[in-house]
C-alpha cells in the first residue's frame, strides 16, 4: 500500500489541464476527473508532454525534443519514433476528452502548447493518480490501435516536411555538383589555353641552329630535315629571300618531299611577325 501511495511523489505531482484533465507524469497517465476515463501513455510520450507543458508557448522542434527525451540517455532514434510518440500523446488526450486543439503543430518548426490554455501544476505529498473513480475503468492505450483520420493527417504532414528537407538537401547536392563541373570545365579551358600559348612560345624549341646563313640571316632546321651538306646544296639552288635581323626556319612537309620556309622577325614569340614564303623542291 505504501508503495502504491509513493508512486506519484514528484514535484509537481500532477498537472491540471483546463480544470478537468489530470496528467500524472510519474505514472504516464491522463485522467478525466469528471467521468474517470484514464489512459496510460508511453513513457517517452509522457515525457514529451511534460516538456511541452514546461515550455508552454514555445515551439519545440523535432530535433530538440529528440535530444531532450532520448539524446540525454545516449539513445539515437529515428524521426518516425518521434512521430509515433506524438501520435500516442494526441490519441491519449483525445480519449480523455482534451480535444485536438491542445497541441499545436507549426509546420516546419515543431510543436507547442498555446499560452492561452489553463495548465496548473499541483504539488501534493501523496497523489492517487492511478485510482479510478467509482464505476469507471482504466483504459490501456498503445500505438497498436488504428490511427484515426486526424492522426494520419498529422503523420502525413510531418513526413511531407521531412521529404521537403530531403529535397532541399538533394537540390543543394545537385547545385554543388553543377558548380564543381563548371569549375572543372573552366580549369580545363584554362589549361588548354595555357598549354596552347606555351606551345606557341616554344614552337621552334626543337629546331637546331645551323652554321649556314642566307644574307646574314640565321637558319634553323627541324630534326627531320636534310643533313647540312644536302641543305647547303638545296639553298644554293633555291636561295630564300630574307632581310637583316630575320630568322629562317626550315621545316619538312610530311609525307610530301618538300620543305617550307618561315621567316620571322625575332624568335617567334607573341607580338612578333612571321611569314611563310614558299616551299622548296
UniProtKB/TrEMBL annotation:
Annotated ranges, domain OmpR/PhoB-type: 12-115
Start-end of DNA-binding region: 12-115
Protein name according to UniProt: Transcriptional regulator
PROSITE patterns according to UniProt: OMPR_PHOB
Transmembrane stretches, start-end: 176-195
Keyword terms, alphabetized: DNA-binding, Membrane, Transmembrane, Transmembrane helix
One Gene Ontology term from the biological process aspect of the record: phosphorelay signal transduction system
Keyword hit for Nucleotide-binding: no
Organism expressing this protein natively: Klebsiella pneumoniae subsp. ozaenae
Alphabetical list of InterPro entries matching this protein: OmpR/PhoB-type_DNA-bd (IPR001867), Sig_transdc_resp-reg_C-effctor (IPR016032), WH-like_DNA-bd_sf (IPR036388)
Pfam families the record matches: Trans_reg_C
Transmembrane is among the record's keywords: yes
MF terms (GO), sorted A to Z: DNA binding
Domain of life: Bacteria
Amino acid at each position: 500500500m505504501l508503495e502504491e501511495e509513493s508512486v506519484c511523489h514528484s514535484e509537481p505531482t500532477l498537472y491540471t489541464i483546463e480544470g478537468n484533465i489530470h496528467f500524472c507524469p510519474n505514472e504516464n497517465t491522463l485522467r478525466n476527473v469528471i467521468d474517470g476515463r484514464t489512459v496510460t501513455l508511453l513513457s517517452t510520450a509522457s515525457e514529451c508532454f511534460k516538456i511541452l507543458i514546461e515550455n508552454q508557448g514555445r515551439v519545440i522542434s523535432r530535433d530538440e525534443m529528440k535530444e531532450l527525451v532520448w539524446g540525454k540517455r545516449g539513445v539515437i532514434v529515428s524521426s518516425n519514433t518521434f512521430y509515433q510518440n506524438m501520435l500516442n500523446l494526441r490519441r491519449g488526450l483525445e480519449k480523455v476528452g482534451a480535444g485536438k486543439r491542445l497541441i499545436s503543430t507549426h509546420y516546419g518548426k515543431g510543436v507547442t502548447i498555446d499560452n492561452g490554455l489553463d495548465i496548473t501544476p499541483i504539488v501534493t505529498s501523496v497523489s492517487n493518480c492511478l485510482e479510478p473513480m467509482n464505476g469507471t475503468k482504466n483504459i490501456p492505450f498503445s500505438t497498436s490501435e488504428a490511427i484515426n483520420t486526424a492522426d494520419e493527417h498529422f503523420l502525413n504532414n510531418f513526413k511531407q516536411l521531412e521529404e521537403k528537407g530531403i529535397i532541399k538537401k538533394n537540390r543543394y547536392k545537385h547545385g554543388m555538383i553543377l558548380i564543381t563541373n563548371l569549375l572543372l570545365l573552366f580549369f580545363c579551358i584554362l589549361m588548354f589555353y595555357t598549354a596552347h600559348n606555351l606551345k606557341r612560345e616554344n614552337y621552334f624549341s626543337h629546331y637546331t641552329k645551323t652554321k649556314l646563313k642566307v644574307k646574314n640571316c640565321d637558319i634553323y632546321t627541324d630534326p627531320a630535315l636534310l643533313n647540312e651538306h644536302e641543305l647547303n646544296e638545296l639553298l644554293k639552288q633555291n636561295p630564300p629571300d630574307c632581310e637583316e635581323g630575320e630568322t629562317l626556319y626550315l621545316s619538312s612537309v610530311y609525307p610530301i618531299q618538300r620543305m617550307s620556309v618561315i621567316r620571322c622577325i625575332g624568335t617567334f614569340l607573341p607580338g612578333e611577325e612571321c611569314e611563310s614564303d614558299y616551299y622548296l623542291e
